[in-house]
């Protein structure tokens, strides 16, 4: 896949290393922990094991057990105590092992974490980061492949972002940690160790703002908006469409709450067509929200209804069927055809 | 042998096993006795009749409580009760949306609250008006919550008093995390005790069934956090008796988590003060956590929307009135010659003035302006939220005279 167009890097620089998304997240955590002694990492198996995906690999060894906490096995406990630590002045980074296990913590996230600032009118802040490996495509058993990001994006007081490449992974981690608002970072678990997505990360570069979307491929036939694990699918579709003489613009949404749809509006005003790609079910989802706002802002520019290519409105299926459930190249191109043939 | 301390199976051959749902007659009687008496392991330093009991374990924690200090505790409880009753009345008059009465729990709250030092942190549930008072929070700052002009008025860091937490049990985890932070900050086990800190968290008997309370116990225990879990067992979770939450007395649950649990007479301000001082002291010296079950009684309704006559007998309330937390201190002060009638009259007059000020303040509280809806949702407000705010405010401004 092409590297993000806004992040040209000098691969010869000593500050630049080529790495996977998983390694970039690890390096981002490491940089944040070095910069601020109040940053803590906490979660199940994040210490000695380095996390089941190894995203926290080596951190406990280098920063100590008082900074990288192997917690008891209870998600509400992880988030609930992180809130107390944040009130005390710490900046906890919680790992939820799989997105399907986050729901015991939903109460603490929704009732406390998202509302402490509002409840006290700014007298308290809760700068907690919650890392959530999400999405499917790994052939796993139930509860290991879901996409619940819309549920959390619906909660006022929370911010939600998702990375799709090593450069964003490195910077978003640090930006989320320094944010005074609680941030949920949805990490595409399928892409953690993808060598195809390895990219040079320049640790001296100036990153894009955390809550900004970005055009990652320019085009003028139609626009595709995607995020996290769906971004490579969107880029592959654009490459395939190119061979058919269609030039697709691809936008990485990056920030899911708040959405940054300015670049999407600008793009749709040129192309007149939008396809939104997400692994989550479509009903009452982020894809629906993007469609609603685009029809409001770009009503006279639209040449076709906004197309949504998403997971179906079912629970996540047994993994032997997930290739049908997950948006793939063909379904995205089919939606592009629908938009262009309207 | 059935006992009020634990549901037990009968001897083999003695018939079907008793359960919490179908207790034996002996257990019913024993349970009723426990409900009003607190069982044999109740720590009590001042009887309902005002008699001071010597206690070699806890008396050292009351060494500084002279006649003046005891009069101070009496005054605290009278003022808190008067403010509680006034607030309850104001709700009846439509000035508050709801009130959560603490009547009967003054000793548990004033005793434990006065055990805290300024650097300690308290995490309340939503009935802890007496604890708030001991932390120096203006009672008027509580009214906004119940008049629904605000969600929380005070600065938690300034007073060492977290915002009220309405979702049952959430605050126990938050407190455990805060106490972990105190430990990480090196505020536990220092040779110089002034450098030490502790956390106390308040919750009720109903909350003990919540997963967050269980997890809060686990976290505090495995991280040796300096946290006192202060359970006010007021016997009722709205309409459900404590027996619906637990087979065994709540303080005994501590053993399962590996820290001490103690049951204190929650209507005895001296016992609550001494036991909480002891527990905080244990925490500050690295021996935390500690669970305290303050055995008390909710003498009024759960809230002003509740009707206790639907689920409990008035006889029960009458029995508990004999254990009133304020009356026993008054009797003790009078009998011991520590206070004259002038003192009691003076406190009553002060309470009346306190209530009058509260009433005057409440009646004149302004509603917040509409823009308050949008303030402090985020540290860094998204542009779309700013736009939503501006759109609504200009919509409002479009009405004649700016009135909606």
TrEMBL record, chain A:
Tell me which CDD domains the record gives.
TPP_PYR_E1-PDHc-beta_like
Q: Name any one Pfam family assigned in the record.
A: Transket_pyr
Record flagged with keyword Secreted: no
What keywords would UniProt list here? Oxidoreductase, Pyruvate, Thiamine pyrophosphate
UniProt cofactor(s): thiamine diphosphate
Q: Which InterPro entries match?
A: THDP-binding (IPR029061), Transketo_C/PFOR_II (IPR009014), Transketolase-like_Pyr-bd (IPR005475), Transketolase_C (IPR033248)
GO MF, one annotated term: pyruvate dehydrogenase (acetyl-transferring) activity
Lineage, top-rank taxon, reads Bacteria
Q: Protein name, please?
A: Pyruvate dehydrogenase E1 component beta subunit
Native source species: Prauserella sediminis
Automatic annotation (TrEMBL), chain B:
Tell me a GO biological process for this protein. Answer: branched-chain amino acid catabolic process
Question: E.C. number, please?
Answer: 1.2.4.4
Tell me the ranges covered by the Dehydrogenase E1 component domain, including all copies: 75-352
Give the Gene3D superfamilies listed for this entry: 3.40.50.970
Recorded catalytic reaction(s): these are:
N(6)-[(R)-lipoyl]-L-lysyl-[protein] + 3-methyl-2-oxobutanoate + H(+) = N(6)-[(R)-S(8)-2-methylpropanoyldihydrolipoyl]-L-lysyl-[protein] + CO2
Q: Biased-composition ranges for Low complexity?
A: 10-25
Keyword entries, A-Z:
Oxidoreductase, Pyruvate, Thiamine pyrophosphate
- Write out the ranges of the annotated region (Disordered): 1-26
Q: Does the keyword Oxidoreductase apply?
A: yes
Q: Does the keyword Transferase apply?
A: no
This entry's Gene Ontology molecular function terms read: branched-chain 2-oxo acid dehydrogenase activity; magnesium ion binding
Instruction: Name the needed cofactors.
Output: thiamine diphosphate
Q: What is any Pfam family matched here?
A: E1_dh
Role, per record = The branched-chain alpha-keto dehydrogenase complex catalyzes the overall conversion of alpha-keto acids to acyl-CoA and CO(2). It contains multiple copies of three enzymatic components: branched-chain alpha-keto acid decarboxylase (E1), lipoamide acyltransferase (E2) and lipoamide dehydrogenase (E3).
Q: Which family does it belong to?
A: Belongs to the BCKDHA family.
**Protein name, please?**
2-oxoisovalerate dehydrogenase subunit alpha
Q: From which organism does this entry originate?
A: Prauserella sediminis
């Amino acid at each position: 896949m092409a590297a993000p167009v806004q992040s040209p890097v000098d691969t010869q620089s000593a500050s630049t290393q080529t790495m996977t998304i998983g390694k970039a997240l690890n390096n981002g955590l490491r940089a944040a922990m070095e910069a601020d002694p109040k940053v803590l990492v906490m979660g199940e198996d994040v210490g000695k094991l380095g996390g089941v995906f190894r995203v926290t690999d080596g951190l406990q060894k280098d920063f100590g057990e008082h900074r990288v906490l192997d917690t008891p096995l209870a998600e509400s406990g992880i988030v609930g105590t992180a809130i107390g630590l944040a009130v005390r002045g710490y900046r906890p980074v919680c790992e939820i092992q799989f997105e399907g296990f986050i729901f015991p913590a939903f109460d603490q996230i929704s009732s406390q974490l998202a509302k402490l600032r509002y409840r006290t009118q700014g007298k308290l802040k809760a700068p907690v980061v919650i890392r959530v490996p999400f999405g499917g495509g790994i052939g796993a058993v139930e509860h290991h492949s879901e996409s619940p990001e819309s549920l959390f994006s619906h909660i006022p007081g929370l911010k939600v972002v998702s990375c799709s490449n090593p450069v964003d992974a490195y910077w978003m981690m640090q930006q989320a940690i320094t944010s005074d608002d609680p941030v949920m970072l949805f990490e595409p678990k399928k892409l953690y160790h993808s060598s195809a997505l390895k990219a040079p990360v320049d640790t001296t570069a100036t990153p894009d703002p955390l809550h900004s979307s970005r055009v990652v491929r320019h085009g003028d036939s139609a626009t595709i908006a995607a995020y996290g694990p769906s971004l490579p699918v969107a880029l592959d579709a654009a490459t395939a469409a190119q061979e058919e003489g269609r030039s697709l613009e691809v936008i990485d949404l990056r920030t899911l709450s708040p959405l940054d749809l300015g670049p999407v509006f600008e793009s749709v005003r040129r192309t007149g067509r939008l396809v939104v790609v997400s692994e989550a079910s479509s009903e009452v989802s982020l894809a629906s929200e993007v469609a609603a706002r685009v029809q409001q802002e770009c009503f006279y520019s639209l040449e076709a209804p906004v197309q949504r290519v998403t997971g179906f409105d079912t629970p996540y299926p047994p993994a032997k069927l997930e290739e049908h459930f997950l948006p793939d190249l063909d379904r995205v191109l089919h939606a592009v055809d629908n938009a262009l043939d309207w | 042998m059935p006992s009020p301390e634990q549901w037990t199976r009968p001897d083999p051959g003695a018939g079907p096993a008793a359960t919490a749902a179908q207790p034996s007659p002996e257990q019913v009687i024993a349970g009723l006795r426990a409900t009003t008496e607190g069982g044999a392991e109740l720590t009590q330093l001042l009887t309902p009749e005002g008699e001071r009991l010597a206690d070699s374990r806890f008396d050292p924690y009351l060494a500084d409580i002279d006649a003046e200090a005891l009069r101070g505790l009496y005054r605290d409880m009278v003022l808190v009760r008067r403010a509680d009753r006034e607030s309850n009345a104001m709700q009846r008059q439509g000035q508050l949306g709801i009130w959560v009465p603490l009547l009967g729990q003054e000793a548990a709250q004033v005793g434990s609250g006065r055990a805290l030092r300024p650097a300690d942190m308290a995490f309340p549930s939503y009935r802890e008006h007496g604890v708030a008072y001991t932390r120096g929070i203006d009672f008027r700052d509580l009214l906004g919550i119940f008049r629904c002009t605000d969600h929380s008025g005070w600065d938690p860091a300034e007073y060492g008093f977290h915002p009220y937490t309405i979702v049952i049990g959430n605050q126990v985890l938050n407190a455990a995390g805060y106490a972990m932070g105190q430990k990480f900050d090196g505020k536990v086990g220092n040779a110089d005790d002034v450098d030490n800190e502790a956390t106390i968290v308040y919750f009720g008997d109903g909350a003990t069934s919540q997963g967050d309370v269980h997890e809060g116990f686990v976290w505090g225990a495995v991280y040796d956090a300096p946290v006192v879990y202060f359970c006010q067992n007021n016997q009722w979770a709205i309409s459900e008796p404590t027996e619906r939450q637990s087979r065994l007395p709540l303080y005994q649950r501590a053993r399962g988590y590996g820290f001490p649990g103690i049951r204190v007479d929650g209507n005895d301000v001296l016992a609550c003060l001494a036991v909480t001082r002891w527990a905080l002291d244990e925490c500050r010296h690295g021996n935390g956590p500690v669970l305290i079950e303050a055995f008390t009684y909710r003498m009024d309704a759960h809230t002003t929307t509740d009707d206790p006559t639907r689920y409990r007998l008035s006889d029960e309330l009458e029995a508990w009135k004999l254990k009133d937390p304020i009356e026993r201190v008054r009797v003790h002060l009078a009998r011991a010659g520590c206070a004259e009638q002038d003192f009691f009259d003076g406190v009553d007059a002060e309470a009346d003035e306190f209530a009058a000020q509260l009433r005057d303040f409440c009646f004149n509280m302004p509603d917040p302006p509409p823009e308050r809806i949008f303030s402090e949702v985020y540290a860094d407000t998204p542009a779309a939220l700013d736009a939503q705010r501006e759109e609504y405010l200009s919509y409002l401004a479009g009405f004649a005279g700016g009135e909606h």
